[in-house]
Design goal:
Elements lengths: L2 H11 L12 E7 L6 E7 L1 E2 L4 E4 L10 H8 L2 E6 L2 E9 L2 H14 L2 H7 L7 E6 L17
Antiparallel strand pairs: 1-2, 1-5, 3-4, 4-7, 5-6, 6-7
């Protein structure tokens, strides 16, 4: 992570809006490093599609996939922070048909991603962040209630 990314993460977690960004469109994605096994947090644009939050692995039009994306391929369990909360999720890379549908929606919200795609030879992946169901910490079922 760069110093700029560190500054964005710090500002976001302190409740401030990072310079040049919209707090409500920012998402912090925490992944597990595929080589180090350490947790890494990366700021990126939050794309709230109707079914779930999505992120785009454009790497700012880099010719190579970003490191966080490679981490997700290795371990899809992630943690997501956004302006109004946080949740655990499983990251799913969209297949071709799903990607095409999501891509059209994303371009309506963030048309600059079309420029990113034009500048790279790789297909830029889109990742759906599916919330992990809440598991309550009960080890035993609730006792039956007698109705005498």
């Amino acid at each position: 992570m760069t110093q700029d990314d560190d500054d964005v993460v710090t500002a976001f977690r302190e409740g401030r809006t990072p310079p040049g960004m919209h707090r409500d469109r920012l998402l912090l994605l925490t992944t597990t490093g595929r080589m180090s096994g350490r947790r890494h947090t990366t700021p990126m644009m939050r794309l709230a599609l109707p079914d779930a939050d999505h992120v785009v692995a454009s790497g700012n039009a880099s010719p190579h996939h970003p490191g966080w994306y490679l981490d997700v391929l290795h371990d899809p369990d992630v943690h997501v922070e956004f302006a109004n909360g946080e949740y655990d999720a499983v990251a799913h890379v969209l297949g071709a048909d799903e990607r095409d549908n999501a891509w059209n929606f994303i371009l309506q919200c963030a048309p600059f991603f079309a420029d990113h795609q034009r500048h790279v030879e790789r297909v830029i992946p889109i990742i759906r962040l599916e919330r992990t169901p809440l598991v309550l910490p009960f080890s035993d079922p609730l006792p039956a209630v007698s109705r005498r």
